[in-house]
Each structure stands twice: as C-alpha cells, then as structure tokens.
Amino acid sequence: MPLHSLKLGAGLATAITLLAMDSAVPQVPGPFTAAQATAGHAAYLENCASCHNRTLQGGGEAPRLIGNAFISSWGQRGANELYGVIKASMPLGNGNSLTPETYQQIVAFLFQANGATPGAAAFTGESQAKISSFATGKTPAGLLDAPVAAAPAQRRRAPVTQMGLVVTGTVKNYTPVTDEMLTHPSENDWLMHRGNYQAWDFSRLKQINTSNAGSLQLRWVYAMDEGGRQQFNPLVHDGTMFLSNNRTNTVQAVDAKTGELIWENRIGPVVDNLENATRTMALYGNLLFYGATSATVHALDAKTGKEVWKTVISTYKNDKVGGMTVIHGKLLVGLTRCDDQSVQDHCWIAAYDTQTGKQIWKTLTIADKGTPGGDSWGNLTNDQRAGADAWITGSYDPELNLTYWGTGQAKPSRRDERGTDGDALFSNTTLALNPDTGKLQWYYQNAPGESLDLDEVYERVLVDHGDQKVVLEVGKTGILWKLDRTNGKFLDLAQTVFQNVWVKFDKKTGRPTYRDDIIHQKPGVALASCPSPEGGHDWPATSYDQPDDLFLIPLSQTCAMYGAGSQLFYEMPGSNGNLGRISAYEAKTLKPVWTFQQRSPFLTSIISTAGGVGFVGDFDRVFRAFDVKTGKTLWDTRLGTGVQGFPITYSVDGEQFVAVTTGLQGGSPVQKPATMLQEVHRSQTGQAVYVFALPKQH
Amino acid sequence: MALTVLTRLAGLAAAAAMFCGSALAQTYQANLGPMPLDAATNKNMLGRGEATASWDGKMLTVNGRFAGLPSPATKAHLFVSPYIGVPGGESFDLTVAPADNGTLSGQFALNAKQAAAFRTGRLYVQIDSQKAPTGNLWGWLLPQHFDAPPDVPQQAPWFLPQLDTPSR
User: Fold this and answer.
1) pLDDT, tens digit, 9 for 90 and up, residues B62-72
2) A558: CB partners within 8 A, 6+ apart
3) Which of A582, A595, A632 to probe the B interface (max B CBs under 10 A)?
4) Are the CB atoms for A616 and A622 separated by under 8 Å?
5) Has the ipTM of the complex gone over 0.95?
6) Separation of alpha carbons A136 and A156, rounded Å
7) B24-144 fold
C-alpha cells in the first residue's frame, strides 16, 4: 500500500471526543412529555438517587448527571444512546430490570433536569435528537426540590421479616477480646479485617496443605439477604462466626463449625438500593461493632446480639461508615461517601470509646486553607474541597504505635471539574497516625493531583525485613509502592499491570509525572486511562505469605475512556483479553515470581496459609485453592453467583475451615467486567457464605 | 477465546529477552479485542482477532485475521498512537475482507517517526464494521513475547508493556 494512503483524523479519538457545548443554545422542545418527566422524577428517586444523589450530583463511582459534566459528555450523543446505556446497565448490575416505560420516564426526567422543555410527543427511546439540541445543562429552579409522589414498586424485593433481635440465643465459651489477642491473634480465630493488624490476610494454619487441598469439600452454606453491596469479611472468634448484610443491616452469629444460627439482629434500616459496601466489623471485649448504612456504628453484645450502644457518626446526606478497627480500646472509623463539595462533608478518620461510643479524636483527610497542606488545593475554598474518603480499614504497627490508612481520590475526580491542578492533600495519600491522639506522624502522597478516579486508598501491608520496616500498597494504577513506615520515605516501586497514566517517576521520591493530555485536559474530552477506574488493584485485598516473603496481588486488566459523565471500557493492551490476573512478588526485592491470567477478574481478596495454600474467588463463580509458591491450581469449585468478598480460614476443635461469601454489586470491579464479559452469565441472586474443609474422619 | 492466542514462542529464555523490550525485535504481535464500549454498544463489538507486523528496516508488513464480528468488516486501519492504549489520529489503510470472519493485510514504508512508534509499541490495528463504523476491534502491536495460556501460571519474567516506568 503506498504511503499516500496515510490519512489523518476520523479515528476513535474523534468519535469519542465529546465536545463541550455552549449552554446558551436556543431551546427547542425535547422529545418527551411533562407527564413522563414527572413520573421519571419519582422513578429516579426510587431507583437511581442512592448512587447518583437526589440532586443528580453523582457520588463515588456514579457520574454526575447534571450540568456541564453531563452536557459535555452526552451533548453530542443522541437521546436514544443515553436511553440505551441506562436501560442496558441501570440500576447498576440490574440492567433491563425496570419496564421500558420507566426507563423512558427516567431519561425524560434527566432531560428536564438538564434544562430541556417538555414537548408534545412522548419519548419512546428511539429519538436520535442530539441532547445538546434541546438540553442546556441548566436545571429549572425548584425542580429538584418539588414534592414527588412515590413511584410504584418496579422491582421485586426480597421479603423482609420483622426487625430487631429476631433470633435469640447465647454464644457459648466466648472469651472477651483483648488488646493482646488483637496484637497476637490466635490462628484459630479471624479476629479482624484481613486477619491481623499488619493486614497480611495470612493464617498460620496448615492442616489444609498443597497435598490435600484437592480433597476440600463443602461443609455448610448459609444463605444471606439479597441486595446491598456484598463485599463482606466474616469474623470468627472462639468457634463463632459473625456475619452481616447491609441491605437489611442484619448481623448474625453462627456456629462456625456447623452453620447453626445462634442469634440474629435485624438492625435496619432496610435499604432497597446499593448504598455503600460494609466490608467488615470489629470485635473488642464482649462487643461486636457494625457500621450500618445509616452512618451509625452499633455496638452489640457479641454473645447475645443485644445492642449496647449506637453512635451516629455523620448526619450529612449520604455519608457512610468506611474502614473500622480497634486499637487500644478505641474504635477507629473512617468516613466515606463524602461526595459533596462542602466543608460540612469533609472526610475524616476518628476514634470512639469502645465502651460508650463517644468520639475521642477526629482527623480530617482534607487539608483546609491555613492548615498544613492547605495550599495544595490552589485557590479553592474549603467548600470546594472534597474526597479523600477513608473507605478501607487501616493497619497498625504496635511497636511504632502508628496506624496506616489510605485515602481515596479528590472529588470531582477530574482536574478540569475539580478546578485545581494542585496536589489536593490528603487525597490518595498514605497517612501514619498515632492511634491514641489522631496526630499525623507522617504522610506520603502516592498520587498527587490524581485525575482519573484512580484511588490509592487500599490496604497498607506492614512487612519487616530484618531491621527494615516497610509498608506496601498497590493502588488502582497497579503501582506497588514500598515505603519506610517509620518515616514515610519512598523506597521502591514496581509496575504490576500495564499503565499509561504516568510516564515517569522521580527515582528518589517516587513522585509520578502524568501524561501531557491528562495534565492539560479539557472539559468534555474523554481521557484514555489504563487501568480503568476498576483499578489494576481495587478492594479485593492482597495477601502477604510471610514464610515465603511473597506478596500476592489480585489484579484487573481493563482500560477506559474516562469522561466527566460517561465511561467506555476496553481490554488492557497486552492482556490478550484476560481481565483477571494474580501476580506474586518477592516482598523484599519487589521482583516478580509468578503470574496467572484468566478471562474473568478476581473479586475476592487473596488469603495465604502456612500450609502453602492460597484461596481466591472470581467473577465467574469459581472459588480456587492454589499453591502460593507457583500459582498452580490445586482445587476449584463453582458457587451460586460471583465469589465476592474476603475469604477467611479458622479452626474449631482442631479442624481447619475456609469460608468465603458470594455476592453481587462489587462496584467498579464488577461493573466494568459485567459490561465486557458478555459470555459470562451469573445469577442476580445467591448471596451466601460457604464453608469448606477436608473430608470428615468418621 | 474464539481464536487461539497469538503464536507462542518456546522457552522462557526467549521470553526473558523479549521482556526486556529489545529494540532489535522485528516482529510484533497484537491481540484484537473490542473497542471502547458501554452497555448500549457492547453487542456491536463482539469478536476477536490477531495480527503480526514485521519490519525489515524499510517496509512494515502487517497480516492478521479475525472472527466473530456481529456485522461484516468495512475498513481496517493501522493507527499511530501517542502512547500505548491511547487512541491515535494518524493512520494507514489496511486491506480487510468484508465479512464477519476473515483476514487483513498491508505493507507500508515508514518514516523515522513512524518507525520509532512501531518500535515502542505505539501502532495499533483497528477493524471497523457495519454495526460499529467507528471501530469494532483493535489491538496494539507489541514486541513478540510468550504468554502462558489462560489458567496456567507463568513463572517470572513475564511481559508487561512499558511506557517510561522504571523497569526491573
């Protein structure tokens, strides 16, 4: 082919470059009726507002559906395209679950909320009119505050029985959890999120080993309430397993050996939306702490399930309980879903008295004007600073008496929407705090001025090599960071998946440099992001196999064209369509040891054991045991739906068990693959806890 | 996957050499997967493919095949992208079979800048189709390397495309 065939333009870049539009475009009636929009408002509140906010401002991973962000993303696309996307994918994870009429009404409401004038013809989902030809992004005054009649129920909801302590019983042989137990947990228990203060997700149990793992059998299963975001980490103490589900905010105690229910407290509220994930609870003394979706911490008597105290940690809109752990008799809690640009909605980490629920200290994760780091937000007022959610539980070094927490991205995620190209402290930062006072000992910002919803909030794993004390973390970019945890000094990094967001790193400080088009981003122009906001690494946590000094990482391999109000997903270059990867690195050197790829992504944390066996579950319902030294599969089985959450292992009466939850609604790690893996079909029900063990000796 | 993944190279020694991103590598490979999609468009972007590109210092020869498109292919292109994984604007036309399954090919003389883009993995193959006129499949041409088949663990080193990240 001759060289003159070279041509310019007309490629994908043009196709997906969504031009910002002038909000002063003359108005023509939109392709919908006023009655549709009114009905759509109610349907929106019923089905969409829990994620996208009553005011359509978005939040978390849910994009803004109003204003310039919406128009710049959707203005040049047809009304039918918006309808198609919403109908096929919403409510998140339950696309096509509403009637076509309801979807049409919701879209009509979105048009009206973006300044479109209703017309005479009803919207049928077929109009190809450009949205910018009839919508401006300007919301009619008073529209969102107008009283709205309740929408008729559109979805079948799981039956809800009476609330409160509906099953009574008493846990036998329960011993109060002490500081010593938390510092040196028994291998028979799984006392806290990720197993120990160091966040290892490792167990010293070795009854199940590489020789016998192939004979694992299902021992018991317990069905859980459907709904909610099931990403749960059961806890086990003295042979009792504690479970929770955040659709009904139900907490249960179950005999960990037999699966017999001991007590059940249906705390409520019952929420028929996705809300926020509740990943774990915490134990201390005789108390079990649960963070309900009402931003309330409930302290229950672990033996009976009776409520001892409760504390509302935030009354601001959609705020939720994030990470949770107990240190020195203080319940440390991170606040999350701080989505609004408001000084009242700044995220924080706080400590509460475990006996009374009274707050002891609170440390903001947003640097306000006049405080250290406050100038990193440029000229933004305190009301314009948002994000830095503390949604993942921190780790703790008892010797240094420091607790290590990560924070999420600044909000809005994109710099052009945020209005500053500053570093935005303390977003996407490693924080080292004194757990007794909340005082910030040091910080290291892993992703200064991040712009593509690529969190660095995840588990901070504490590892010692001789005298060297390090903290390891992998963020959404897939960069494995290694810091000196005594002072926050950067030591090293490794790339674990392909990434094209950062073009280089300062070798002394680790500070990354962004691609030019990210630095100079323009409103309405989608940016290529590898990894996607699904993350190379996300909430499915890593494991540190201490005997082998192996750091085991569940990874995902998707990319996205990331716009202000829309995302398009694609496979990561070099992945050959394998969206899931596990990679093992030597923790001391960060050298790669083995990797394993498959089509479906992994949706659980990894746990490793002294028996040399690791466990992990995936999107396509497979729960797997593997050899931690080689990655070779030793055993696998398929469960009812996606295997999602935090596996654990424990021992009762000398017998080792492995437990894992199935679940739905895993956020980005589910949404992106669900759009891409069209050949994988999963049940939209089936939340449960499954427990496995070696064959019984009769 | 509908097609076997790209040609495997035997031996980890060869893989190790390629992992280092040797500038001397002359043959590159691409696995073609769906273009950026969402829930409304994903059904128009099914299919898979593979391509290889060989550079003799003067001419670049591209060959490939694809299968499983939801609608017949209409055009194929070789794009130059600013970074791996980032859509580009400058392109060459490839010859493509107007069918759901078929082959593609092309031969080009590259200037120095384009040759540098090839060596650094910044060329990608794109196939358009009737139902996806702005792109159905694409894939970046990366240095030929060994990948263990899906579900089989691979011992280090393994291939990860690099930008300017410190390599190890």
Assistant:
1) 999 999 999 99
2) A531, A532, A534, A569, A570, A571, A572, A579, A672, A673, A676
3) A595
4) no
5) no
6) 36
7) Immunoglobulin-like (2.60.40)
